[in-house]
Write a structure and sequence with these properties.
The structure is a single chain. The protein is α/β, with parallel strands linked by helices and 226 residues long. The chain contains 5 helices and 10 strands. It has a 6-stranded mixed β-sheet with strand order 1-3-6-7-2-8, with helices on one face. A two-stranded antiparallel ribbon has the order 4-5. 33% of the residues are buried.
Length: 226
Amino acid sequence: ARLVMPFFCSDVPLPTELFATSTLCLPAISSGSVGQLACDLLISTFQMTHIGYIDSQYLTPLVGGDPFTRPDAPTRLALCCEVYHAPDRQLVVIQQRAAPMKGCSAAFSEQLMGWVRAAGFRAVIVLTGADLSFRQPDQLAEPGKRYICTSTFPEPLRQRMGLLGWAPLEQYQRFHQVPRGSGNFGALLEAALGHPVEPTPGPRAEGGPADGAEEVTLMYELAPHY
């Protein structure tokens, strides 16, 4: 009989309500490794605890030394996709160190979002980078941070992002386009929304919103920034 591993494998006993009371943050594999570096910063700054790893047949295998091992802690190996927790901040971070295998991005995104739904996270944030050539002339004079969020995104958090100088991604608002160079973010967004998003064309498209553009109501808050 074939051994079927669970998608999330825990290192330690976890409270049943841990995920439902936490916000999940994860990276897209994108330009400049922006999302992965941001997750590294979160894990290191908050001294997050390693609680398990993601086991998927769609991820490129990877093993190496643990970059977060403390001098007083036992040495362990790090795998391609691991899960960390900061209980005092009700935050769970997935650090994905390897991209999905060629042709498997959509399948992995569906698998991941299926687990997210089952776990019942109260919010999900995806961090990604993008190619600077995606920026339009009217965006060049402004800070580069942008976000995409669903209609269920908490208004206080939206206002907080505004105070920090973040703005909604104009190309997504007008044409439902994801940033060029954002890697597998588009596949993650499609898996969360349940319908395709527009690919980014070379020249800028003119006119109104893309056909079929709609507001969606979901439990996922997807916030890329570049």
